[in-house]
Amino acid sequence: MALTNRTLVIMAKAPRLGSVKTRLAHSLSLPAVTELYRCLLNDTIALAQELGYVETAIMCPASDVEDLARAVAKTVPIVPQTGQGLAAGLASVFNHFATSGQRRVIAFNSDSPHLPAAVLEAAFDALEVHDLVVGPTHDGGYYLVGARASHSDLFASDAMGTGSALETLLTRARGLQLSVHLTDPFYDIDVEGDLTRLAAELRLAPARAPRTAVWLEQWGQAVAQLRTGA
């Protein structure tokens, strides 16, 4: 295999009841949410492994390593983060993988297997000429962030998971005088409306995320039965 200076790091958690995709618990049972997350994660890994000349790894809380390794059948290396929370996890990605200054490192969320691979490839290409690449979500967050070096003051724990997460990140990047490239806006899976949108897309192209497509088909059938009283 050819040597690569590109690493895609998936930000993940172990699929445990009540610990993943918690906003979906308003409309789905905890076992259903957990199984959906397992499908999303494994399809995200498959997407990452389709990329040419890109190494793939997972960053997760230290307490999740063993359970996560079982959930993904040990298909990719798993690295425990330093500290707690998503901000600490993102900082750990670049502290661990971007120390040489020669690598192009992207941290990617674990619930966007439906993202076109071309977007990830373009994000890596952008790091050849920019300090930072960011993938905005429609709700004010971001689905990926990439850099060529570690920047300890880049991530703010109080903004994670809020509608100001992206703007806070960009403000900090400007303060550090980093050049930034934004990729195409996209959506991740947080609420039932996101599931409905994803189900419609995967009905047309299930190969984009096959495990998730099967789960969503079963979910859609169950919802339809409830609504018709069948």
What does this structure look like?
With 230 residues, this protein is α/β, with parallel strands linked by helices. The chain has helices at 30-50, 65-71, 85-97, 117-126, 165-175, 192-204, 210-228, and strands at residues 6-11, 55-60, 78-80, 104-109, 132-136, 142-147, 180-182. The longest helix has 21 residues, at 30-50. Helix 1 links the parallel strand 1 (6-11) and strand 2 (55-60). It has one domain: Spore Coat Polysaccharide Biosynthesis Protein SpsA, Chain A, CATH 3.90.550. It contains seven helices and seven strands; from the N terminus they run βαβαβαβαββαβαα. It has a seven-stranded mixed sheet with strand order 3-2-1-4-6-5-7, sandwiched between helices.
Key terms:
about 230 residues; alpha/beta; Spore Coat Polysaccharide Biosynthesis Protein SpsA, Chain A; seven-stranded mixed sheet; 7 helices; about 15% strand
